[in-house]
Amino acid sequence: MPEGCAVENPEDRVGIPDAFQRLWTPHRMVYIGGENKPADSTPGQCPFCASPNRGDDEQALIVYRGELVYVILNLYPYNPGHLLVLPYRHVADLTDLTSAERDELFDVSAQAMRVLRAVSHPDGFNLGMNQGDVAGAGIAAHLHHHVVPRWKGDANFLPIVGQTKAVPQLLTEARNALAEAWSTHAHDGEQGAAC
After folding, report:
1. Is residue 8 part of a domain?
2. Percentage, residues of the chain above pLDDT 90
3. Most C-beta atoms within 10 A of its C-beta, which of 70, 91, 92, 132?
4. What is the CATH number of the domain that holds 69?
């Protein structure tokens, strides 16, 4: 170290104002620490299996129920309206779905995009599945398809620097708006297949 330089002890600066503004989001530590992540995602312990059986769709954040799949808001959304499309059946891999489940999962994902467009007017979407723990699946034992609305400029420094995402809409508000719009907009612009 050059002569006359010293390393500053960060403990000496606690509580001293500086040029940074801080957004404290201690509730995110539950997600970061994995506190809500079940240790065992067997069908009896899996939150994705339990959600449809809770009885109250609003409390469970369920937006839509199909015959073989359902749609729920992500409890830890990347953006407002971040939806998960899941089979009711407890399966881990896309290849474990029946043809009917796979067809409905992707049909309902398209419906989710239509509803999100009508309600939130996103500029685009991220769609995807993380298959397995190593691929980033939070609950790898129950397949779920992400439908994430995106807007120009919705990415900022917070996730990179602060491991924090600012989401401007409460989950209950997003759920109610999407559930209300589902019956009206899920099939907007849908065209039959040509033979």
Report:
1. no
2. 41
3. 70
4. 3.30.428.10
Task: Name the catalytic one among 82, 142, 144, 146.
Answer: 144
Picking from 193, 178, 189, the residue whose alpha carbon sits closest to that of residue 70 is: 178
Residue 176: band (very low, low, confident or very high) from pLDDT cuts 50, 70, 90? confident
* Residue 48 phi, psi dihedral angles, 5° rounding: -75, -25
User: Taken in order 53, 54, 60, 64, is the CA torsion positive or negative?
Assistant: positive
Domain limits for position 75: 24-185
The reply to whether 187 belongs to the active site is: no
Burial code (b: 16+ CB inside 10 Å, e: under 16) for 86-109 equals bbbebbeeeeebeeebbebbebbb
Picking from 86, 94, 105, 96, the residue whose alpha carbon sits closest to that of residue 46 is 86
**88 near 52, Cβ under 8 Å?**
yes
Tokens for 128? 């995807």
Can you give the length of the chain in residues?
Answer: 195
Question: Does a structural domain hold residue 141?
Answer: yes
Shortest CA distance to 74 belongs to which of 132, 153, 119, 137? Answer: 137
Report the Cα 138 to chain-centroid distance in Å.
10
